[in-house]
Amino acid sequence: MTNIIIRDIEGQRELRAVEELQKKVWGIPDLDVVPLTQLVAAQAAGGVLLGAFDGDNLVGFVYGFVGYEHGRMTHHSHMLAVRLDYRNFNLGQKLKMAQRARALSQGINLMTWTFDPLQSLNAYFNFSKLGVFSDRYLINFYGEDAASFLHQTGTDRLWVTWDLASSHFQKKVDEKKLKENFGQITPLVKVGVDEFPLSGDLDEELKGEHALIEIPGNINDLVKRNDGSAQKWRESTRRAFTEAIKRGFLVENFHRTNRGDQKFGVYSLSRRKIEDRE
């Protein structure tokens, strides 16, 4: 994999390859593809479109544009895609770090994006590897009938923020202390023996300073095996996230763990304001 390089995407052929990779990775129709014309305009206006190339072949890309949130300039990362056969080479993180470097060079210190909170691999990457946090849960952000095969349980999203200049090490220290107390916290939603969600008493469990939300280890497999259970997970976690955030909790980290042979993920939330992190 030493031949893979990350660089700006240039020219019509490479831009068309971005269109095709969107369809290949997410299974979306032509109508929902971000087209060449939009990509060209965004690049010209300061947006970032970087590709991972194996020789002349585009195997991944990241795309974002300048935003303005709460009185501050941000970079909003709209898409990151890596071909399935290249997902064991850390290309997602390499693309994200290249995007970070480009945003910092533009004088931008915050990056935001959205992701499906039921996707455990993405949650682990975003929270545990990059160090994002979230105080926004968006219900059906892309509508109820989005075309991708990944959207069979709707398009709820966590809006995450990545402080590009923060110390991720300090966050890891804080989370290590919290993990030691996991056994004393009853999750707002827990993975049951049959992988159905078990909802706790939100009024009771949100009285403290910390909260937990569990999710299945692989929601995509669960959709294939039991779509009814997957939909229950959407409804239960939607209620837990929205209520916790409304009561002043931040979503701050994600861990992968197990209960016997059952593998699952768990979000950790803390009752504090964003400015307390800075």
Provide a quick synopsis of the model:
With 278 residues, the chain is of the alpha+beta class. The protein has helices at 11-26, 36-44, 91-105, 120-130, 168-179, 202-205, 219-225, 227-246, and strands at 4-8, 48-54, 57-69, 72-82, 110-115, 133-138, 157-163, 189-191, 197-199, 210-216, 249-259, 262-271. The protein has a 7-stranded mixed sheet with strand order 1-2-3-4-5-7-6, sandwiched between helices.
Polypeptide structure, described:
There is one protein chain. The chain is of the alpha+beta class and about 280 residues long. Helices cover about 35% and strands about 30% of the residues. It has helices at about 10-25, 35-45, 90-105, 120-130, 170-180, 200-205, 220-225, 225-245; strands spanning about 5-10, 50-55, 55-70, 70-80, 110-115, 135-140, 155-165, 190, 195-200, 210-215, 250-260, 260-270. Strands 1-2-3-4-5-7-6 form a seven-stranded mixed β-sheet, sandwiched between helices. Helix 3 links the parallel strand 4 and strand 5 (about 110-115). The longest helix is centred in the C-terminal third of the chain and has 20 residues, at about 225-245. The mean pLDDT is about 90.
